[in-house]
Amino acid sequence: MTDAASLPYLDEHSVLVAASREPTWSALLGMVEEIGPSWFARTLGAIPSASSGPRPLVVGSAVPGFRVAAAAEGHALALAGRHRYSRYVLTFRLHRSSANATRLTAVSHADFPGWRGAAYRGMVVGTRLHVLATRRMLGDVKRHAERSWNR
After folding, report:
1. Please, are residues 140 and 132 in contact by the beta-carbon 8 Å criterion?
2. Can you give the residue range of the structural domain that contains 45?
3. pLDDT digits (tens, 9 = 90+) for 70-87
4. pTM more than 0.90
């Protein structure tokens, strides 16, 4: 599986979650389980294209488009995958900001080989679709973590 160190840096986004690390980690795992439909992953020729492996997510578990490449419970989760147009790693890091807050960061690394990869990069990165999708993921984790924390 692809390692982030072997791919070019793409970008980084973060959000401050008003919840401790435990509910933030739980919300992150829940979001990853719902990351995308299998039909979309199959359309792109993604590997993996479907969910598999143990739950809760551990190294080797898969969701459409991503395999868990590394996991440090409550601290970091690296998701790697590839498809016809790209190889990529999306790493989430959780840092305690205070007793009641967690900084959640998403770091993306990706390679877009060939002219098809360049065209795909233009469609996804050039249009800011990647930025919007990443920020949405972070926002979803934030909402779910804060909701469960404030119960």
Report:
1. no
2. 4-149
3. 999 999 999 999 999 999
4. yes
Are 78 and 71 a contacting pair, CB within 8 Å? yes
User: Contact, 74 vs 22, CB < 8 A?
Assistant: yes
Q: CATH number for the domain including 51?
A: 3.30.530.20
What average pLDDT does the structure give for the chain? 94
Q: Residue holding tokens 């993306």?
A: 108
Q: What is the mean pLDDT of residues 92-105?
A: 95
Rounded to whole angstroms, the Cα distance separating 103 from 97 reads 6
Taking each helix axis as running N to C, give the angle between helix 21-33 and helix 129-149, from 0 to 180 degrees, rounded to the nearest 10: 130
Burial of 15 (0-12, 13-18, 19+ CB in 10 A): middle
User: Residue 17: helix, strand or coil by DSSP?
Assistant: strand
The span from the CA of 90 to the CA of 100, in Å, is 25
| Number of domains forming the structure of the chain | 1
- In terms of phi and psi (left: phi > 0; alpha: psi -120 to 50; beta: otherwise), the region of 113 is beta
Q: How many CB atoms lie within 10 A of CB 39?
A: 10
Residue appearing with tokens 């969910």:
51
Residue 5 and residue 27: Cα distance in Å, rounded?
A: 26
